[in-house]
Amino acid sequence: MFGWILGRRGRHGFDLTDWLSFGFLGLGVVLMLGPVMWLVLSSFKTEAALQEYPPKFLPLVPIEVQVDGFEQPLQLFTITAGEHAGRELAQVRRIGLNAQMVDPANPSERLNVAIGDRDALREFGVATENYTGVFERFNFMLYFWNSTFITVVATVLTVLFNSMAAFALAKYKFTGRNAVFVLIIATLMIPPTITLVPLFLVISEMGMVNSHWGVIWPAIATPTGVFLLRQYMLTIPDDLLDAARMDNASEWKVYWKIVLPLSAPALAVLVIFSVMWRWNEFLWPLIVLNRSEVFTLQLALNSFQGELQTSWSSLLAMTVLTLLPITIVFAFLQKYITQGIAQSGVK
Amino acid sequence: MLKTLATQAYDGAFNLFERPMLALQRLFGQSRIAWVFLLPNLLIFGLFTFLPIILNFVFATTGGDRILLADRPFVGTEHFASLLDCESYFDPNSCHRDLFWRAVGNTGWFVLMQVGFMILFSLITALILNRDIVLRGFFRAVFFYPVLLSPVVVALIWKWILQRNGVLNAGLEGAGFGTVNWLLEADWAFFWVVFVSIWCNMGFYVLILLAGLQSIPSDVYEAAEMDGTPRWRSLWRITLPLLMPTMLVVMVLSVIRAVQAFDEIYVLTGGGPGSATTLLIQYIYDVGFATRPRLYGLAAAASLLMAGVLFVLTMMQLAATRKQSGDN
Fold it and tell me: Per the database record, which ranges form the ABC transmembrane type-1 domain (chain A) (predicted)?
C-alpha cells in the first residue's frame, strides 16, 4: 500500500543507493525546513516560555483556574514534595521562598508550600498575543504598507519600462540599436554594491533620502528584465505587428494591445523576480531610509533585533509575518518560479 | 469582478498614453519612435547606473566627509595609497587600513569556503534529485524555499537557533556535549556565517545544476548501460564531463555573489565578534555610511578596488558562457 513512497517511478526494486538517496533527502528536508518550523513554533510561545532552558518543543501555557472567592484566575501547580505532595493546588500569592496556595475544591483553607516543591502545570496553548502585540505596539501595518508600496510600485514600473525598452530593441531596426543593447547588458557587470557612495549622492541631490522613491527609482531599470523580455519578444512574428499597422494601429497600440499580451509568460517571470527582489531588499534601503516611519519590514526587523531590550516573542512573530507573503506566493507559484529560474539562470 | 477591474485598468493605462504617444509618433516617424520606448529605461540607467560609475572615480579622488562634490577637496590617489599601504599583505596588522585587509582576508576565506562547499552539496543534491525518484518536485521545492526568504529573516531564524539558550545548545547539552556561544567565538561565528550563507543560496544552484543534468540526453546512459559500464563510472566519465559547462557558470556566478555577500551576515553577526566576520561590502558600508565622519572617498576607493576584482570574474563568466554555448 505504501510501496509508492519507496519505489522509483516506473521501475521495480529498491536498492541501497535508493535508501541512501532518501536518507540524504530526508536529512535535507529537516535541515531546510526545520529551522523555519522551529521559528514558527517558537513564535507562538509566551515570553516566559521563550526564556525557558532547555526549550520545550511545543508552545505550552500555564493552566489557570477560577477559584471561588478570587477575582483573578489562579495558576495551577502540582506539588512534588512536602506534606501536600501529589496534590494539585492553585497559587494565591508568592511570599519570599514560600507560596500561599489553595485547593480549588476547598478554597477557604490556605496552604503554605515552599516554591521549590511545586511545578507549574501546563497545557498546549498558543500565545496569539505575540501577534496581536506586533500590530498594537510595533506599528507593523506601517512597515508592511511601506514594503508593499515599494514592492508594488517598483514592480509595475519595472515591468512597464523594461518591456518598453525590450519592445524597442526586439521589434525596431534603428541605428545604434546594438550599441544600446550592449550598453544595457554591460550594466549586468556593475552590481549596485559597487556604486553605493555616488548613488547616494544622486539620491540626496534629488531630495530622495528618507523617501520610498529613493529606493524605487534606482531599482527599476533592470538589465535582467530587459534581456529576458527582449529574448521572448524576438519570438513574436513581425507579420502580426505589420498586420496591425496595416489596420492603422499606432505603434503604442501595437505594443500595448499585441506585444504585451503575447509576452505574458515572460512578464510573469519578471513580476515574480521583481517582487522577490524588492520585498527582500536590504542594503540599499538601509542606506537611504534612516527614519523609522519610512522603514521597510526588513529594516524594521533589523532595527528591532539590534535593540538592547529585544523581546524575542514580538521579534519572532514579526519575522513569521514577514516571511508569510513570500511563502504563500511560493506555495501557489512554485512550479513557475522554479521553471523561470532554471530557464533564465537569474535570481 | 476582479478580472473586469484589471481589464479596465489595463485599458485605462492604454488610453492615458495613447494620445501623447501618437503625437510623438507623428513627430519622429515610425522607426525613430523606438527611442521614445527606450527613453524611460535609458534615463534611469543613465542617472542611477552610468552617472554613479563616473562619480565613483570623483569620490575616490576627493577627501572630506561632505557628500556634495563642490565641498570635496581633490586628494588624488591618497585613498588608494592608504588602502594599499602595507608592510606585508599577508599580515593585516602591518597595514595602515588594517580593517580593510582583514575584510579582504575574510572575504577571500569566505568565498573559498562558501563556494566550495555550496557547489559540492548542490551537486550531490542535484544528482540525487535527477534520479527517477518519487516526490521529486516536493524535494526540489524544499531545497529551493530558503532562497526566497529575505536575508534578514534568514539571519533571525539562525540567530534564534544559535543563541546562548537556543535549541542547538539545548540539544548538544541533552546529548552530553558542552554548550558554545556560537556567534561570539570568532571561528564558530565564521563557520556559521558560511553555513547560513550556503543554507539560503544552495537551492538556486541546485536548480541550475538540475536543469543542466536534465539536458544530458538519456541515450548516452543507455549506450553505457548496454556496454555494461558500472554506474559510478558513467557518473565520472559521462555525467560530470557533460555537466562541466553548467558547473563553470555556476562557479563563476557563485563567486561573484560571494564576493558581494553582506545582508544575512550583517544581521547575523554584525561583522563580529571583533572583525572576524566583516566582509568587504560591510567594510565599505561601515566607513562610508555607518560611522561618522562618513569617509565617502575611502569607501568609493575600496569599492573601485572591488569592482576591479569583479570585472575580472565577470569576464571569466562571459568566457565560460561563450564556451558553453559554443559546445552546444
Answer: 144-333
